[in-house]
Design brief:
The protein is mostly helical. It has ten helices and no strands. The longest helix has 28 residues. The radius of gyration is 18 Å and the shape is globular.
Amino acid sequence: MDIRILYEILLVLGGYLFGSIPFAFIIVKITQGEDIRNYGSGNMGATNVMRSFSKKLGYITMAFDMIKGAIPVFIARLYIWFADYSGFGTETATGFPKYLDEGFLLTLVAFMAVVGHALPIWVKFKGGKSAAVGSGAVLGISPIAWFVLMVLWIVLLKYLKIMSLSNLILSLLAPLFYWIFAGNDWFFNGSLWALIVASIMVVFIFWRHKANIKRLLTGTERKMGEKGEKIESESG
C-alpha cells in the first residue's frame, strides 16, 4: 500500500478525533463544576451552554467548536500544499469523475469533524448538533465563503432571534457559497466530489436538528435569551 494513502486515512481519522473533543462539557465542568448534559436540552453544544449558563460561556464554546472544525481541515490543506497528494481512484476524461481529488479530501475531513462533534467517542457518542463545527470546517475549506456566511449569520440571528433557524439557513447556503468561491487558484476547491460531500454534510446537520425543526414547525422553538432548565435525572 502506498504510504500516502495511510497519511490520508490518518487525516480523515484526525478530523473525527478533533471534532469529538467535547468542549461544551469541558468548559462547563471547569467553570461551573456542572455537567452540561444535565441542563436544558442536554445537548453538548454552544446554544445549550448559552441558554443554561451564560452568553459568554456559550460564545466561548462556539469559538472552540469552530476551531476544532477548522484545525483538521487546515492540516489537510497543508498536506495537499506541501506533500504529494495521491488522490483516490483514477482520472477519467469523460463521464462522472472516479478520481477523488483535493476538494474531496478537504470536505471529507470536514465532514468527519462534524460527525465527531455529533457522535464523540469520549462521551458515549452523545454530542452536539454540529453547526459551529461545520462553520469552522467551512473556514478551513474556503475562508472567503466563511466570512460571507458569518456576516449573513449575524444578520439572521439579529432579526430572527432563533439560533437553530439561523444555523439551518446557513447550512443550506454553505454548499452554494462554497461553489461560488471555490474556483480560485489558491484554494483550488472547485470539485464536484467536494460539493457532493458538502451536501451530505448539510443533510447530516439537518438530521441532528430534527427536534428543533419540529419545534420550529409548531412555533415552540425558544428564542435567544430564553433560559434552559436543569434536567431531572431518572433517579430524582
